[in-house]
Amino acid sequence: MGQHRRARPRRRRLLAPSLFAALSAVVVAAVVAGTHGLDLSDATAAGKAARSVRVAGPAATASPGATTAQPAAPGPASAATPSGSATPTAVPSPAGTPAATAPATPDASGSPAAHGAALGTTAPAPADDKEAATVGALFSGPVEAGNHFCTASVLHSATGNLLLTAAHCVSSTDGVTFAPGYRDGSAPYGTWRVTAVHTASGWSQKGDVDEDFAILETAPNNGRAVEDVVGGNRLGTGEPFDATVRLYGYPADSETPSLCTNTTDQQSAYQRVIQCPSYPSGTSGGPWIDTATGDVVGAIGGYQQGGDTDDVSYSAYFDHTIADLYAQAESAAS
């Protein structure tokens, strides 16, 4: 599968009429310079969700809005751009079903420590690791190589069936399945069908990038909730912007999850940023797990749909807005 890269800004070229061909190079340069800013204002980023249709979404607001759980529309979500006015819409996808066989159990000896990698470097996530097993790929149809479109992770909950991803990844339950620990075409722990999508009202009503997160409900696989099989990560809110996190994600052109550990920074009032190389399309929704607490404090998304370059990723800040959404999703799943 070819590499999915984010769109780059396109600049318009203005052709001078022949009537002004004799004008000096200084005048021509001034005309071109005067249009350069206009071109940049028209540019949009495709984000880090693979194989999605881009629609317009409004710019980020000064603060997150009220939080409500929203009903899912048919089909995987389309990726919203940072500016515009349309609400994210659905894209139909083929149906998918959970694995028929009983899922395995991750190796309890897997340690969520530093994993031996230097800060700011990206490498394949370790196999059979307890924390890595909670992270998986989202599929719109059969769980097979080249068919995953975003990343998700298991959230600890009383119901044991909740996932965290980016809101721009999924606005649908139609044919969407989750495969934790997916690697090289195999779902070692089984698959779980997504049955409901919960997003904050700021996202569902106006595509607010400060609320680009979603909580998904899943159906049991052979009577077992996903958290009962692979475990889950606690939701962390209100944590400092300078946390050190482990960043997971499934590149669209890879069948192995990536892992990078680095310290985050504040990009804006409600956005985190991290420098981690090689996080292209498909990594949207990947969790940011605090190395000090083990809590998940972000998901790739937010500004520029997670970033318009492979080496810089963003996340909406986790505060009371996602805490309220989590409480509503847990209540609905009970």
How would you describe the overall organization of this protein?
- There is one protein chain.
- This protein has 334 residues and is an alpha+beta fold.
- The chain has a domain at 122-333: Beta Barrel (Thrombin, subunit H), CATH 2.40.10.10.
- The chain has 4 helices and 14 strands.
- The protein has helices at 25-42, 201-206, 226-230, 320-333; strands spanning 122-124, 135-140, 148-155, 162-165, 176-180, 192-199, 214-218, 244-249, 258-263, 265-268, 271-275, 287-290, 296-299, 312-316.
- The two termini are 40 Å apart.
Summarize the structure.
The protein is 13% helix and 22% strand. The chain is α+β, with helices and mostly antiparallel strands and 334 residues long.
Strand arrangement, major sheet? 2-3-4-7-6-5
Helix fraction by DSSP (H/I, runs of at least 4)? 10-25%
Radius of gyration: 21 Å
Number of helices: 4
Total number of beta strands: 14
- SS-based class: alpha+beta
CATH homologous superfamily grouping of the domain at 122-333 = Trypsin-like serine proteases
Query: Biggest sheet: strands, sense, closure?
Result: 6 strands, antiparallel, barrel
CATH class of the domain at 122-333: Mainly Beta
Distance between the termini: 40 Å
Beta-strand percentage range: 15-25%
Oligomerization: single chain
The helix/strand series, from N terminus to C terminus, equals HEEEEEEHEHEEEEEEEH
Shape: globular
CATH fold-level label of the domain at 122-333:
Thrombin, subunit H
Unreliable spans:
1-46, 51-75, 78-101, 109-114
* Mean pLDDT score: 77
CATH architecture of the domain at 122-333: Beta Barrel
